[in-house]
Write a structure and sequence with these properties.
The structure holds 2 protein chains of 2 kinds. Chain A is of the alpha+beta class. Helix content of chain A is about 15%, strand content about 20%. Chain A has 3 domains: about 100 residues, Ubiquitin-like (UB roll), CATH 3.10.20.740; about 110 residues, Alpha-Beta Plaits; about 80 residues, no CATH class. Chain B has a 5-stranded mixed β-sheet with strand order 8-7-11-9-10. Chain B has a 4-stranded parallel β-sheet with strand order 3-2-1-4, sandwiched between helices. A two-stranded antiparallel ribbon of chain B has the order 5-6. The chains are: A alpha+beta, B alpha/beta.
Chain lengths: ~300, ~425
């Protein structure tokens, strides 16, 4: 199927979404996605940051779409023409949505563990306006422990539902979900039940903000002071391929590996994530790839090429 | 013109025997002599449009139903009426429960459906009982259940009470709720006609829409299309409320002038002594509000009629929508700001919270309006409201976001002076 996104034409198989097609062109200019996660079924459509404009629905139907559509949940049609960054309307809508996502967000980045690797920070930086007219009080929730390993800061949550899908699709029994309605919605567990399953830690990795944090890592270090190294170990529960975040010889935390759009393809078990915090537990492969523009890239050197390797 | 409410004042009409004596269930007998597709064609010819608010062609919706999937098909009656100002379905169901059952039987036959659901607003507890009694009566007389009146057609109808969420009146949220899940609207496509209840092809119709079908079967599509004007055919139940002398539910032939509906003694009976018309919300809280001069005439000076087209004349600049028929009249003593704040409070409370523009935006709208109404508004708040409404409108998963944004945008469009007055009289205005 032929699809044109911002004037660039490409061929994709049928069943591809506009977002996936746009990511094939360039992951940087593709629409931002705060809730869609390619490895989680049914995710997407909720945050509305990936809204794009369809100027031609298909080769047969040359009419534009009535309203902006979510790129993550809209399938490509043959001959479809899509405007993403070229449409003023899309950029304006996106700016509005970023503002709405931020009006109740605490902006406590200076003390938030996610700062530096936060999708919402990046979104606000790349697509947001510099100010807001919001002058009302922000909504507040108490900080909660959900289970032995995970801390929930509901104030920071943007209700992307990714953690709910992780629990639904990776763990045998989901015991947390969204409670209440509207802007009173919160992530919660069923009658103070602990989130306790072998793959629950992946919620932390899929969380786009600092709402779900690793209790073994909280307040230990800013991420950009840690050295992320690809590492692996023999594991019977998961693939065992991880990133260990080092400070000296100390393993500060262990996370799953993310691809170039920040998504985990191989989820890891809680054993690897929370229980193996010694350097000798791991076979270090080398520095994790960090984008040059990321704040984590400070003092980060990977694959230094000597003249003899060239 | 009475098609739906024809026998509504007959004593005991909610009982099977009385209803039957007055010609009830005749369309079930007649339908068995017809091919299902003939009924679909009759409904198409009738020009009947969805009475829940969107006004989509019912015949068209029916013909979209996937008949080839091999999966079971479902018909769902949306009786989750919850729009502020709308109470026509409640009025209808508590008087004529059998007419709704009859409509469901005939429509199910036309669509080839063997299981139908009525999703009723949970607060209408007495209606749930009435409907269940009516279903049991119809069943014991052979009009429901297996092999209806000895034919090969079988149908079961189940009543399902909602649990109090307005959003469950949105058809895909209704289906989620019916499946036992959180009432979150689905992301479309796929539409219910392809993948609806339990992933099977489904038609969702409003109470009033289904109730009109028996008449169409008995009298033909052309007879129905002869009532009304242009593409607004047939009759419509209007629930009139607000500052009028005779609030209540009225059945009108579409095409009645708005002015006549407000001032005629057959309908609203005019406003209270010494009051004048200030504003009109013609189709429930979700539609744009109109000032008096645009309520009874269009911007072009034509008389405004109670039709889908005439009310929309002038777009949202100077028009509104027929919506669900919740007709709210405001007189010169009513405060537009307070009314707008009240609606914003409702939409904030009822937003499901699934998508971000609506979840965050409705709360913001309410907070700003509350401030203005309580004397803490600022001049820039008025434009801010318009801006927030723009950030929500058209960006959400379902139509709820638009419904929350339109009343506020239109109130400011037509009554900006009143907002300015509130702000300039603010207690902490400097």
């Amino acid at each position: 199927m032929k699809v044109t996104i911002d004037g660039i034409e490409l061929d994709v198989p049928s069943g591809t979404t506009i977002l996936e097609a746009a990511r094939q062109i360039d992951t940087k200019s593709a629409p931002p996605a705060m809730c869609y996660y390619s490895t989680l079924k049914d995710s997407g459509g909720k945050c509305r940051t990936c809204l794009v404009k369809i100027t031609q629905s298909s080769a047969q139907n040359t009419r534009p779409s009535m309203r902006l559509v979510p790129a993550c949940r809209t399938l490509v049609e043959d001959g479809m023409v899509v405007q993403n960054n070229l449409s003023e309307e899309v950029l304006e809508a996106r700016k509005g949505i970023v503002e709405l996502l931020l009006i109740n967000h605490p902006l406590d980045c200076p003390i938030c563990d996610q700062a530096g690797e936060c999708d919402l920070q990046n979104l606000a930086f790349e697509h947001g306006a510099s100010g807001t007219d919001y002058k009302e009080e922000r909504r507040r929730f108490p900080v909660q422990d959900i289970g032995p390993d995970i801390k929930l800061h509901m104030n920071r949550c943007i209700l992307c539902f990714r953690c709910v899908y992780v629990a639904d699709q990776l763990t045998p029994h989901r015991c947390h979900g969204v409670l209440n309605r509207g802007d009173a919605s919160e992530i919660g567990t069923y009658i103070a039940k602990a989130v306790d399953s072998d793959f629950s830690g992946n919620m932390i990795d899929v969380c786009p903000v600092g709402a779900l944090t690793d209790k073994t890592f909280r307040f230990k270090s800013r991420v950009w002071f840690a050295r992320p190294m690809n590492a692996h170990r023999e594991c019977t529960a998961c693939c065992g391929k991880t990133v260990v975040w080092l400070k000296g010889d100390e393993v500060l935390r262990v996370t799953a590996r993310k691809d170039d759009v920040g998504e985990v393809k191989d989820f890891i078990c809680n054993g690897c994530r929370f229980q193996h915090k010694k350097l000798e537990d791991w076979v270090i492969e080398g520095p994790m790839h960090v984008d040059r523009h990321s704040v984590i890239s400070q003092n980060h050197y990977e694959q230094l090429q000597g003249p003899q390797d060239a | 013109m009475q098609i739906l409410l024809e026998n509504s004042s007959v004593a005991g009409i909610d009982q099977f025997d009385v209803y039957r004596q007055h010609g009830g269930y005749a369309s079930v007998e007649k339908m068995l002599t017809m091919a299902p597709n003939d009924i679909v064609e009759a409904v198409k010819k009738s020009g009947l449009r969805g009475r829940g608010g969107a006004g989509f062609s019912t015949g068209m919706k029916w013909s979209f139903l996937d008949q080839k999937s091999g999966k079971p098909k479902y018909l769902v009656c949306n009786a989750d009426e919850g729009e502020p100002g709308t109470f026509k379905d409640r009025y209808f169901m508590e008087r004529l429960p059998h007419r709704l059952i009859e409509g469901l039987i005939v429509s199910s036959y036309a669509l080839g459906v063997n299981t139908a659901y009525i999703y009723v607003r949970g607060e209408l507890s007495w209606i749930i009982t009435q409907l269940e009694d009516a279903i049991a009566e119809a069943k014991s007389h052979g009009f429901l259940g297996s092999k209806i009146l000895g034919s090969e057609f079988s149908l079961e109808i189940y009543v399902h009470p909602g649990a109090g969420a307005y959003i469950c009146g949105e058809e895909s949220a209704l289906l989620e709720s019916l499946e036992g899940k959180r009432g979150y609207p689905r992301i479309k496509p796929p539409f219910p006609a392809i993948a609806g209840l339990y992933g099977c092809p489904t038609v969702v119709n409003n109470v009033e829409t289904l109730a009109a079908v028996p008449w169409i079967v008995m009298h033909g599509g052309e007879a129905y299309a002869a009532i009304g004007i242009g593409k607004s055919t047939g009759t419509k139940l209007i629930s009139a409320c607000g500052n009028i002398r005779k609030p209540g539910v009225y059945e009108i032939a579409l095409g009645l002038p708005v002015e006549e509906f407000i001032y005629s003694d057959s309908y609203c009976g005019g406003l209270l002594e010494g009051r004048t018309l200030k504003a009109l919300i013609a189709g429930g809280s979700s539609v744009p509000i109109l000032p008096a001069h645009l309520a009874t005439t269009t911007a072009a000076g034509e008389p405004r009629l109670m039709t889908y087209e005439s009310l929309f004349e002038g777009g949202f600049e100077s028009g509104t929508m027929l919506g669900s028929g919740g007709f709210i009249v405001l007189d010169d003593k009513a405060c537009i700001v307070r009314n707008t704040w009240n609606f914003a409070r409702f939409y904030h409370h009822e937003s499901c919270g699934q998508c971000s523009p609506c979840r965050e935006g409705t709360g913001w709208l309410e907070k700003v309006l509350e401030r203005i109404e309580h004397g803490h508004g600022r001049t820039e708040d008025i434009d801010l409201l318009v801006e927030i409404a723009k950030k929500i409108e058209g960006k959400t998963i379902c139509a709820f976001g638009d419904a929350a944004a339109w009343p506020i945008a239109s109130a400011i469009r037509h009554f900006r002076d009143e907002f300015i007055e509130h702000v300039s009289l603010a207690k902490d205005h400097v």
